[in-house]
Design brief:
By secondary structure, the chain is α/β, with parallel strands linked by helices. It has 13 helices and eleven strands. A seven-stranded mixed sheet has the order 1-7-6-5-4-2-3, sandwiched between helices. The chain has a four-stranded antiparallel sheet with strand order 8-9-11-10. The structure holds pyridoxal-5'-phosphate. Keywords: Decarboxylase, Lyase, Pyridoxal phosphate.
């Protein structure tokens, strides 16, 4: 089979997969998962055929996928793939661009610059900011926090690039009691051990309580959240960032999914967020672009460019070249699917996507309350934290709903109590899917 025939075959199989996406179980059944044993083969000495390899991947692999690209996947905040973004990704595979600099890919450098401007516009963040397209909110937090650390040390007269951390002035890091694990991970990788993190207590909703905000100074990084991972709540940015600005602290906002609220009628939740120094958000969650697509935004463009610089004698580039704004040197143009998503949705389409999920989440919460469920959060966004009766009943209800195929979602622990965590973030999810989920949950609770 020629290259072109092989690609057509892959497209045919992909098309057939997508045709069945609405019917697919949100989580693969036991038989499909058992079929994965076929992949447990030794590395062949002689290479196997490409057609056969693709066939194996589709025949035994496709059934064992979670249908996270479908309408009834309510786990984590996964998001599906918008057709335009997925199509752009397909074309990019043919291009095989190394999107490091203008020299390695004029098209990637050009579009990613535009995508960066559009993001600042859509999210209404300071237009002078640098925008790096990284693999994940985790990686982007690492980039932003390293820029923060470098800048605060530099203001203390310390050159971290040359002298490292030994003997450096101590940087204080204040995080929310409910900080996301990946921000902790980024901090850990940067040398901020967990016992040194200062915890900011939260209120009953999971937002940092400004009255109990630990002291801040010019050697402090304050990590805030737009969209707490369970409840979807937002820290009170205006008052917290005002305090941080007065103290000359650096404010970083983890907005992996929640930052998108700013594009919608829920914008008030983000009031004051524009005063921070850096922000991270994902394309692959709520914007529904393919993996891996995330964004590091840093008000002080130079701070990010210096922290992430990877110029070499054989590879120098402008300060806003993506290799100088992200962890990666060789990289996929992950800003292009984000550009395609923004261009095809438009400002209005992004707002509608976010609003629709928020409205459906509120509808679902009302319905579940009527049926005797305890909704533990306020449902300000697209997240529900729900219980029914005892811990055991709650877990059983989850399993019954998953068995019916009406939806998949995970468990969490909120304020010490195990609960169902339901998230709406797929562009494919329609009211009928949410209604079906509500029905399945109600039936499971009655039994
Ligand atoms: C998912 C998530 C992250 C991490 O994002 P990745 O892109 O998966 O690395 C960080 N913070 C919050 C609140 C999240 O939901």
């Amino acid at each position: 089979m020629s290259e072109l025939e092989l690609m057509a075959e892959a497209d045919r199989r992909a098309k057939s997969y997508l045709e069945g996406i609405e019917q697919r179980l949100p989580f693969p059944d036991q038989a499909a998962r058992a079929g994965l044993s076929i992949f447990s083969e030794p590395l062949p000495y002689e290479g196997r055929g490409a057609v056969e390899t693709l066939q194996m991947l589709d025949i035994h692999g496709s059934p064992a996928t979670t249908a996270s690209n479908g309408p009834r996947y309510f786990g984590f905040v996964i998001g599906a793939s918008l057709p335009a973004a997925a199509a752009a990704e397909r074309l990019m595979l043919a291009w095989d661009q190394c999107a490091a600099t203008y020299d390695t890919s004029p098209i990637a450098a050009t579009i990613e610059k535009i995508a960066g401007r559009w993001l600042l516009d859509a999210l209404d963040l300071p237009r002078e900011s640098a925008v790096g397209f990284g693999t994940s909110a985790t990686a982007c937090a690492l980039s932003c926090l390293s820029a923060a650390r470098r800048s605060l040390l530099s203001r203390q007269g310390w050159n971290i690039d040359r002298d490292g951390l030994f003997g450096a002035p101590e940087i204080r890091v204040v995080v929310s009691e409910t900080v996301h694990i990946t921000v902790r991970k980024a901090l850990r990788l940067l040398g901020f051990g967990s016992v040194h993190l200062v915890t900011a207590p939260v209120d009953a909703y999971g937002r940092i309580d400004p009255d109990r905000l630990p002291p801040l100074d010019e050697k402090t990084i304050l990590c805030l959240q737009a969209g707490e991972v369970n409840t979807g709540e937002f820290d009170p940015f205006a008052v917290l960032i005002d305090a941080a600005t007065k103290a000359k602290a650096w404010v970083h906002v983890d907005g992996a999914f929640g930052l998108w609220a700013r594009t919608s009628s829920r914008r008030a939740l983000t009031e004051g967020i524009e005063g921070a120094d850096s922000w991270t958000t994902d394309g692959h969650k709520w914007l529904n672009t393919p993996y891996d697509g995330a964004v590091a935004i840093c008000r002080d463009a130079e701070a990010l460019a210096q922290a992430m610089n990877s110029d070499a004698v054989y590879a120098t580039a402008s300060a806003d070249a993506q290799k100088n704004l992200t962890l990666e040197f060789s990289r996929r143009a992950r800003g292009i699917p984000i550009w395609a998503a923004l261009r095809t949705l438009g400002r209005a389409g992004v707002a509608q996507l976010v609003d629709r999920h928020c409205n459906e989440a509120a509808w679902l919460a009302d319905r579940l309350r009527e049926r005797g469920f305890d909704v533990l959060n306020r449902v300000v966004l697209n997240q529900l934290v729900v219980r029914y009766g005892t811990d055991e009943q709650t877990a059983q209800i989850r399993q019954s709903v998953i068995d019916t195929g009406a939806g998949w979602f995970g468990m969490t622990v909120w304020q010490g109590r195990p609960a169902l965590r339901i998230s709406l973030s797929s562009w494919r999810t329609e009211h009928q899917d949410v209604s079906r989920l509500a029905e399945a949950l109600s039936i499971a609770a009655r039994n």
